[in-house]
Automatic annotation (TrEMBL):
GO terms for biological process: ascaroside biosynthetic process; fatty acid beta-oxidation using acyl-CoA oxidase; lipid homeostasis. FAD binds at residues 147, 186. This is Acyl-coenzyme A oxidase. Residues 283-444 form the Acyl-CoA oxidase C-alpha1 domain. It comes from Pristionchus mayeri. InterPro entries: ACOX_C_alpha1, Acyl-CoA_ox_N, Acyl-CoA_Oxase/DH_mid-dom_sf, Acyl-CoA_oxidase, Acyl-CoA_oxidase_C, AcylCo_DH-like_C, AcylCoA_DH/ox_N_sf, AcylCoA_DH/oxidase_NM_dom_sf. Pathway: Lipid metabolism; peroxisomal fatty acid beta-oxidation. It comes from the Eukaryota. The keyword Mitochondrion does not apply. Belongs to the acyl-CoA oxidase family. Coiled coil: none annotated. Its cofactor is FAD.
Length: 667
């Protein structure tokens, strides 16, 4: 079943790969994006962006200074949010932005990712009616300013205050110390004129904890900072350099009472405080991003896998058999072992990302109806997924980069930037070690509920099951039964790690430590339990997707799922072996199966990444281009380096030439 990416003039090795494909790449892509119609829309948007002269890049962004890159990004953003705004649906926006602008951020990123969601879910009806239409029409640009120079993780210790003044019915927003300055918020430095600012709410001298307030930062006409406001860009970073992550100090800035986001927690004119139905509803914007970033991180890994796979199919280096031709590097087992698990993980993350977005939507619906009972489960799952997926993605992209040899180190590959952007996810929206502990808190409760025979939500139902013997390697050649045996073993391992961590914690408490100190003594084990809980969820989610997939792609998805499960189990072998649930022979069996999977997937590898349906423009990689004509493209790319504008650089003329001349004349 030939792959539809084949076109005349392509690199013959890539064409051959595509001709031997055993599944319909469009069918898999349609399944990934939800429907044929969605796939067609995706292609339509890619084509229209490429054809729009307003999005044309005279030279690649890699060769621009930061200021010029910010300028180019802002210019394109204006086109998106004026000319294109009504041509795409909201759910198509992220793809349009990726195509048109790239992945390093744009002026309205935080406006969409956090400002609008905070207002939507936390502003009361009056404030929402006033500000949301303006924000949605891009009359104003906003961001979400929470992190301070001195505190990011521990929100309880944020220092920015919002003190209620009953006499004027205003809040006074203040930055009391240097380290209380807001530091890091995206698009805060130069682009935004409004922000949702997270402050300690103080009423009558009492601190009621972090709450969110809408603050105008800049004049709507001149864009100059308003009185009392110091704001700017924090400087260059590993990546996201077209984003103006910013600093902000507020010197006793007064805002009307109604600019507190009061849908859940409220302050009445006389200063009476009403708490929300769930104490953490103020943290909703973070949950929103965590729930959505899983999918976008799956896409970042998918890009890296696409680059590495296609390049490995066109790159020929060395021989496997003496006297044979130089081989495609994709034929080396080590190369397959590096790259194929990244393809499988990218699919797994994308599937899990879609499930968690649905779960988020259901939880929001509940909250809108006054029910926050789904929130703890969602918070535990998003915290775990956020941590596991960003770490997995970082390792995966780096493996893909290294698998491209020297060219992977060049910005031409797109991989260094991809890594820089992706790895930020380990830190933002809650540092990974911290968020895994949030998951662990929920697991510890789950262990207790299971002991007490209480009902458990689907994501932790496994805590209430009984373990049998591991059937890995004992269920004959039936792949369906093998998948089930592995999932049951993962369930056992996730359960065992959670129970062990709970017992370790209890033991320390019984030994005389307070709960919190005892917790700190077992957090490495707690986080292990959280990771395996999350990896179990991902495996289950992939399995659900496999079982519901059409027969035309079932076989290739099953092969990919087998590889995924075998790789994850070998990667977690320590946990499987530790309590004797699996034995060495079973791990050897899993490794043998994994090596077989590499061979099985080899003919479909290129087509599997083609089904990610990432256009050349979006991929932005000379090595990963669809046609595989990388060598000519590499030369054309390098010629655009500003060092090549002249044959003799001023740096050479001014320093190197005189030095050589002086040294020659000494002889
Ligand atoms: C047009 C273009 C469109 C593009 C965009 C469109 C859509 C995009 C949408 C999404 C974006 C997708 C991808 C992203 C891409 C790019 C991203 C670019 C930039 C990223 C921007 C980054 C922003 C930030 O980083 S914002 C700052 C984030 N900061 C943090 O996350 C801080 C982490 N710290 C905390 O969350 C908390 O302090 C803490 C660690 C959880 C502790 O809090 P504390 O109050 O001390 O509570 P505890 O005592 O520990 O817990 C008490 C109790 O509450 C529970 N809890 C805690 N938090 C929550 C929560 N959020 N929800 C529910 N429950 C919570 C906790 O578990 C505990 O429960 P228990 O008592 O029952 O155990
Ligand atoms: C690219 C990027 C974009 C960002 N965008 C925004 C934004 O738009 N808005 C915004 O408000 N913020 C933003 N941030 C800030 C981000 O949310 C914080 O950096 C993050 O929450 C971590 O906080 P911190 O930097 O204070 O790290 P710290 O809390 O100081 O953590 C430092 C280290 O200490 C350890 N640690 C800390 N606490 C614990 C604990 N309880 N248990 C175990 N270990 C611990 C961890 O190893 C951690 O890595 C962004 C950051 C980045 C990198």
């Amino acid at each position: 079943m030939p792959n539809r990416c084949i076109r005349p003039g392509d690199n013959p090795d890539l064409t051959k790969e595509r001709e031997t494909c055993t599944f319909d790449t469009d069918e898999l892509a349609a399944n990934l994006y939800g429907s044929r119609r969605n796939l067609e829309r995706r292609r339509e948007i890619s084509q229209k962006v490429s054809a729009d002269p307003d999005f044309a890049d005279p030279i690649p962004h890699e060769f621009l200074s930061r200021e010029k890159a910010v300028d180019a990004t802002a210019k394109k953003s204006k086109v998106i949010f004026q000319k294109w705004k009504n041509l795409v649906k909201p759910e198509e926006m992220p793809h349009l932005v990726n195509e048109a602008v790239g992945i390093q951020g744009f002026p309205l990123a935080l406006h969409h990712a956090m400002f609008l969601p905070s207002l939507n879910s936390q502003a009361d009806d009056d404030l929402a009616a006033e500000i949301l239409p303006r924000a949605k029409a891009y009359e104003i640009i906003g961001t979400y300013a929470q992190t301070e120079m001195g505190h990011g993780t521990n929100l309880r210790e944020l220092e920015t205050t919002a003190t209620y003044d009953k006499t004027t019915q205003e809040f006074v927003i203040n930055t009391p110390t240097r380290k209380a300055m807001k530091w890091w918020p995206g698009n805060l430095g130069k682009m935004s004129n409004y922000a949702v600012v997270c402050c300690q709410l103080i009423i009558d001298g009492k601190n009621l904890g972090p709450h969110n307030f809408l603050v105008q930062l800049r004049c709507e006409k001149t864009h100059e900072p308003l009185p009392g406001i110091t704001v700017g860009d924090i400087g260059p970073k590993i990546a996201y350099n077209t984003t103006d992550n910013g600093f902000l100090a507020l010197d006793n800035v007064r805002i009307p009472r109604r600019q507190m986001l009061m849908k859940h927690a409220k302050v009445s004119p006389d200063g009476t405080y009403t708490p929300p139905i769930h104490a953490k509803l103020n943290y909703g914007a973070m949950v929103h991003v965590r729930a959505h970033m899983i999918y976008s991180h799956g896409h970042l890994l998918a890009r890296a896998a696409a680059v590495a796979t296609r390049y490995s199919a066109v790159r020929r280096q060395g021989r496997i058999e003496n006297g044979g031709p130089e081989v495609q590097i994709l034929d080396y087992q080590t190369q397959q072992h590096r790259i194929f698990p990244q393809i499988a993980r990218a699919y797994a993350i994308l599937f899990a990302g879609q499930e968690v977005r649905d779960q988020y939507a259901k939880t929001l619906e509940g909250i809108a109806n006054g029910q926050a009972d789904l929130l703890p489960d969602l918070h535990a799952l998003t915290s775990g997924l956020k941590s596991v997926v960003t770490f997995m993605g970082g390792l995966g992209i780096e493996q893909c980069r290294m698998s491209c040899g020297g060219h992977g180190y060049s910005d031409a590959s797109g991989l260094p930037k991809l890594y820089g952007v992706q790895i930020g996810g380990c830190t933002y929206e809650g540092e990974n070690m911290v968020m895994l502990q949030q998951t662990a808190r929920y697991l510890m409760k789950g262990v207790k509920w299971a002991e007490q025979g209480k009902s458990l939500s689907p994501s932790i139902a496994y805590l209430g099951k009984k373990s049998g013997k591991s059937l890995i390697g004992l269920k004959g050649g039936d792949i369906t039964r093998e998948h089930e045996a592995i999932l049951e073993t993962l369930e056992h391992t996730a359960r065992r790690l959670a129970i062990d961590a709970s017992q370790l914690w209890e033991k320390r408490i019984k030994g005389g430590e307070c709960k919190e100190r005892a917790w700190n003594g077992v957090t490495v084990e707690m986080n292990r339990a959280s990771r395996v809980y999350t990896r179990l969820f991902m495996a289950r989610s992939f399995h659900r997707r496999l079982l519901s997939s059409p027969s035309s792609i079932r076989s290739v998805l099953s092969d990919l799922f087998s590889l995924y499960l075998h790789y994850e189990c070998v990667d977690m072998a320590q946990h499987l072996l530790e309590d004797g649930h699996c034995n060495g022979g079973q791990i050897q069996y899993l490794k043998k199966r994994l090596y077989e999977d590499l061979t099985t997937l080899r003919p479909n590898a290129v087509s599997l990444v083609d089904s990610f349906e990432i256009s050349d423009r979006e991929l932005n990689s000379v090595l990963g281009r669809r046609d595989g004509n990388v060598y000519e493209a590499l030369f054309q790319w390098a010629k655009q380096s500003e060092l090549n504008y002249t044959d003799v650089l001023p740096a050479v003329k001014n320093y190197m030439m005189p030095m050589m001349e002086e040294n020659r004349s000494k002889l």
